[in-house]
Amino acid sequence: MACGRASLCVLVGLGTCAATAVFAGELVGAPTPIASVSDSPKEVMDQAWQIVFRDYLDINGKFTSDRWRKTRHDVLAKSYGSPKEAYDAIRGMLGTLDDPYTRFLDPREFKEMQIDTSGELTGVGMQLSLDKATKELTVIAPIEGSPASRAGVQPKDVITAIDGRSTKGMSTEEAVKLIRGQSGTKVVITLRRKGQTLTLPLVRERIELHAVEHQINTTSDGRRIGYIRLKQFTANASRDMRAAIKELDPKVDGYVLDLRSNPGGLLMASVDIARQWLNEGTIVSTRTRDGIQDVKRANGHALTTKPLVILVNEGSASASEILSGALQDNHRAVLVGQKTFGKGLVQSVRSLSDGSGMTVTIAKYLTPSGRDIHKHGIDPDVVAKMGDKEADRLRIEDIGTPKDSQYRAAETTLMKQIRQGTTVKRPYAPDSANVPAAMLQKP
Fold this sequence. Notes:
Blueprint: E1 8-11, H1 41-55, H2 65-76, H3 83-95, E2 103-105, H4 107-115, E3 120-123, E4 126-130, E5 137-142, H5 147-150, E6 158-162, E7 165-166, H6 172-179, E8 186-193, E9 196-203, E10 205-208, E11 212-218, E12 224-230, H7 237-248, E13 254-258, H8 267-277, E14 282-288, E15 291-297, E16 308-312, H9 319-329, E17 334-337, E18 345-351, E19 357-366, H10 373-376, E20 382-383, H11 388-393, H12 405-420, H13 430-439
Parallel strand pairs: 12-13, 13-16, 16-17, 17-20
Antiparallel strand pairs: 1-18, 2-19, 3-10, 4-5, 6-7, 6-8, 8-9, 11-12, 14-15, 14-19, 18-19
């Protein structure tokens, strides 16, 4: 069918943000519309159906070829009088997969998603996802300095209403439509946090993402620590990380890389950044329903071999988990903090012939040792929790300082490495530790 006209990109993001979508890969752009859905709605429907039939990786055990063929027969047997009717039918078809990451976007939504890769956002600054178990609209992390962050929004907050409208059964796309708006306008978000209900009036604004911040911290015994905070894997993150390491490396004894509340971003940014820390070894592999399809490896161009500690928490997701899992499995870094979010599915973004598009789950990410990120997340080597009271009183300027208890734990761990003269251990060999382990796992 017309699926040959569909464009492809791969994403590693965590659903949709209130202000942006988070991607892995680069959007190639929607094709020039060659058919209107009102003229040929079934052509667009069949394109979406064919994409799932060919490429979908079943994550819930609800997909079979026979059932999907029956779905095609049912949707194409009906008549559709408007684009909205056809789009609703496509959403219903994809909804039978029970996969919140496989979803349809109408032409406006698809265009907005492409614009969102620019690194500038208009909204309140919350990364959102549907909770895997409860199907509730859940905050992954607020963007630092955004209206949501300033109002005290926290990871794992459940959004129960937007401007008084219940979010029960609402998709991330529907939530984005309600939360988006012109800069300077207000939206009221109702949250549930550990049994308590919070109502927050937020004013939308233009948000510019600065992905990397760095500084030198001096310990009580005079050691100099390079502290780097990576907030999101944007298109410029790899370049900015490289500049930070090159500036810090002659001056410091070791590093703390802070990935807390980093919701993910571009896949190749995570791979490029891993290569800046890791000289050899596997970084990540992707497993489709046909087996291992792609393995990313270090390329021998690490910028430093000095000791490294990575800070993670429950808001560290997706590309953050790829990076931290790669450096942990290769014994390049010690992880300190809390278990990560657990989102390791690969989505491809496809443009359809009328300018609409869809995302479809096509693979899962595995760490070098074959761990399934999506099922388990990444466990830290050293557990260091931050209580609610500390999180509430910790100011932005206190993050990565002695006032930050998780940072103190990371610094203590790093100092042990420095004093012991820790060196990089032999990395995982992809032919002995990655691929065989991955091949033993069923989709």
